[in-house]
Amino acid sequence: MEAVVCGHIALDVIPWFPAEGGALSDLLVPGKLVNVGPAIAATGGTVSNAGLALHRLGIPVRLTGKVGDDLFGRALLDILRARDPALVEGMLVTSDAPTSYTIVISPPGTDRVFLHCPGANDTFGADDVPYDRLAGARLFHFGYPPLMRRMYADGGEELASLLRRVKEQGVVTSLDMALPDPASEAGRAPWRAILERALPYVDLFVPSLEETLFMLGREAVAAPDGGLLAEVGSELLGMGAAVVALKLGAEGVYLQTTPDGNRLAALRRCLPDGADAWLGRQLLAPCFQVEMVGTTGSGDCTAAGFLAGLLHGLPPEGAMTAAVAVGACSVEAADATSGVPSWDKVQERIAEGWARHKAKLSLPSWEWDEKGGIWRGPNDAR
């Protein structure tokens, strides 16, 4: 076991939409009948999306999430068991709550809409993590606390406790987020205070920029620039994270790392010989060009690519390239992970000169590294 992926899991039901179906706003009209094709039933959430992506990339992984003792729960476990029977060994089954499920409305060429029931995820707490089984792992990745009531209740005390107890095992910690409905209980939680409480125990913080701006109480932006990315990255590092990787959707991934060598030393379980290369870095990796089929789970797969690069001992440039490569493979399929190939296949595709999109962001004083296919920020400590 190299990694443990823990947190939110759900059963995704994804109807197939024809390419000529029209805009999402034209489809979701009250009283309208929309003809769709067969639905894909797939597992969703961080545990499934990031966990199965790591599994497909060849990383030995344990999955820990909670499902109900019901039809959806049995279907979800059957899907995982069909991939590998060992994947269900760390899963928890409860009779006190239903299995979480999501209806994913994802027509071609547009972002998706989710109809979500949190179910058993709302009951997941710090005591559900099998800390005694973390000894062999190098990495612990936790995801979607905004969709898990106990993780954001009481100012995030349960989330901070969970991450602290994992850190006490000497394991590198990683945290991903989700964007809650602003009008919901989760949306009204004190997210800045929750981050301030949790991030001192987070080595790798891998949310989207949209989620981060919401949680910091900042205005959403349509086109962020290099200055905003550096400002947000610095704020998150100041809260305690060692490495911040902000997912930017079609614009790629932004990386900023701590200049504090003592704080970065926490990564040595994953990078025994190369942690120094991660000190004080500022990079942006543009996305690779693909024919997009669906974006479900692409952020989780991008995170999985980044984590796999870290576990393979890559420098920041290599891990960032792996992140956007695995994310690109993900969107070539309707579900989250079936488009993700082996690690070697990903690396072969990159080596063959896979074309990237040009960055549309304003990046004054940044330097384009043609050979590496990556932008280096003005504060990058190369």
In short:
The chain has 382 residues and is of the alpha/beta class.
What report would you give on this structure?
This protein is an alpha/beta fold and about 375 residues long. It has a single domain (about 5-20, about 35-375), classed as 3-Layer(aba) Sandwich (UDP-N-acetylmuramoyl-L-alanine:D-glutamate ligase). It has 12 helices and 16 strands. A 10-stranded mixed β-sheet has the order 4-1-9-10-11-12-13-14-16-15, sandwiched between helices. The model has no long low-confidence stretch (mean pLDDT about 95).
* Mean pLDDT, all residues: 94
CATH architectural group: 3-Layer(aba) Sandwich
Instruction: Write out the strand line-up for the largest beta sheet, numbering strands in chain order.
Output: 4-1-9-10-11-12-13-14-16-15
By CATH reckoning, the class would read Alpha Beta
What is the H level of CATH, i.e. the homologous superfamily?
Ribokinase
Percent range for β-strand residues: 15-25%
How would you sum up the major sheet? 10 strands, mixed
State the CATH topology.
Answer: UDP-N-acetylmuramoyl-L-alanine:D-glutamate ligase
Please give the domain count. 1
Radius of gyration: 20 Å
| H/E topology pattern | EEHEHEEHEEEEHHEHEHHEEHEHHHEE
Low-confidence stretches: none
Helical fraction: 25-40%
Which overall shape is indicated by the principal axes computed on the Cα atoms?
Answer: globular
Number of strands: 16
Give the termini separation.
Answer: 32 Å
Judged by helices, strands and strand pairing, the structural class is alpha/beta
Query: What count of helical segments does DSSP give?
Result: 12
